[in-house]
């Protein structure tokens, strides 16, 4: 692909063109390499030993002993903040950014995509995008949709406002666990901490708890907070690995409303990969349409005519120009919403049929941008 964009810009973002001046590491100033320290083995303990120490203790003794029995989390990498993205990074190992704290499901997705990578936690989705752009990390792995709650709309918006390319996808089975300090039982729980999206995935299960739901920035961070603060009246909804990292017991697993709970993640990089035809590929595009009757039908038909399967369709209001006014002399002015359409289709840009479909789509589009062409991932 000579270019990753077709048509005019939209929403303040122009089509992507080669920007070689931005890809020279020497132009980005001093590099910073993150130093990783070995955990202090003296601060670790096993859950089984902890339970033995709690035998015979009254509920009033829990808070007094909780801090002594929780892990020392100071050796774990701290999430990046926006201030950390002021300089770039050089490292021999591939560095992959994810949103959350160590033990987050996004970290598991990053390690599935790159098993030997250095996983770099970030406070927010925007920080992960920025970290790739300024060369602090090589790639980012971010959630885009979940089988129970649907699309992660924030990341769709960020895809359009940043200049990164989709170079891969990861499908991860998500098992939500209820975690608490050793010795804490379900009847002791008055507060449950987790990310809002995690709460939505297990609404039925947590409705049985007469506990306050407290939203937190990420699931693993909620588990870390309970461990560090020694909260004996609280639990977190997070991964089993988060429980291991922060010394929490699993009170209940499979909290999700449906047994099959899969989150799809996108792998983002500064440069696109070369499309091939040696394995199944997927292409993601975003576009807006000209006005007219049946224009959306015509736009989708360009793929059906070439026997190209659409695996995902998502519409988002055009934020910079959300309203379209149509003058009707009989009934006044009619207001419509302007939309962006995100589509994933199962074909490689190396195939003639995919190229022809996009050239055909351009006839109906005011703006068309290829977000990435990448191998399809299967759940393993």
What tags apply to this protein structure?
six-stranded mixed sheet; 380 residues; alpha+beta; single chain; 25% helix; 18 strands; 11 helices; five-stranded antiparallel sheet; disordered N terminus
Task: Kindly describe this structure.
The protein is elongated. Helices cover 25% and strands 28% of the residues. Strands 2, 3, 4, 5, 6 and 12 form a six-stranded mixed β-sheet that branches. Helix 8 (219-229) runs parallel beside helix 9 and helix 10 packs antiparallel against helix 11. The protein is an alpha+beta fold.
Short recap of the structure:
This protein is of the alpha+beta class and about 375 residues long.
How many beta-strand elements? 18
Largest sheet: 6 strands, mixed
Uncertain residue segments: 1-71, 85-92
Radius of gyration of CA atoms, rounded to a whole number = 24 Å
Percent of residues in β-strands: 25-35%
Order of SSEs, N→C? EHHEHEHEEHEEEHHEHEHEEEHEEEEHE
- Please state the overall shape, judged from the principal axes of the Cα atoms: elongated
Structural class: alpha+beta
**Helical run tally:** 11
Average pLDDT: 79
Amount of helix:
10-25%
Question: What is the straight-line distance between the termini?
Answer: 31 Å
